[in-house]
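B., you asked whether I could sanity-check this one before it goes into the benchmark set. Here's the sequence:
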Amino acid sequence: MSVVNKSERTNGIKQYHIGMVEGDVAEYVLLPGDPFRTDIIAKYMDDVELVAHKREHKTYTGYYKGVRVSVTSTGMGCPSTAIAAEELANIGAKVFIRLGSCAALQDDINIGDLVITTAAMKNEGTSKFYVPDNLPAVADLEVTSELIRVAKEMSNGDDYQVHWGISSTDDSFYGETPEWIQKLIDLNLKNIEMEASALFTVCHRRGLKGATICAVAANHKRGENFWGKRNILLEQGIEKETEVALEAIYRFHHGKNLF
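And here's what the prediction gave me:
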């Protein structure tokens, strides 16, 4: 008997958590947290098929302007995000864009705006299993640059703004005290979300590309949120970030040899 090697045991088989095999997913994968958001994103794709739905991981695969794309929900938080990214990578995924929601931390960011993460403060435990604490969690430069370019272009003359910078990836939604939030504000971070640093860390370790774009659901500095009510601005933001991410994938795919 020998101690299990998970990397060896998970190759060439149906993936345990996401329930898929090689060929089920594309090279490009969008990663919302909420399984129900996969249905929204799938509307933007052609010839789309529901491939699997196991646990919190729901996957569609289809095409955007001829480029094969998948969307897989990660669930909430870094542990399930890392599992999804690892298993998707095992069956051929190479470029990941997280489509999320977040809380803004600065006065100039409004609900419904888009925030693109360039790097993430690792206020979570998952990445500690992969790298030392002092190794930063950084987004892929090429994919992130494409997201910024497309988002700025699409927002021109519209009623939302595009922001980018360092995010805080937190482990505990309800553990964030006013004192903790003020600390993040004072560090001049753009927003709080719950998955980016783990995604960036997994991608770094595996030599893949990871990026994150979030629609703003609340502004913690200004005390603004729609908790308990329908947040139409967030719903619109989810649609906007989907359009941005898919177009960024299309442009990256056709221009990637130029980088």
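One thing to flag: The first strand starts at residue 28 and ends at 32. Otherwise nothing jumped out at me.
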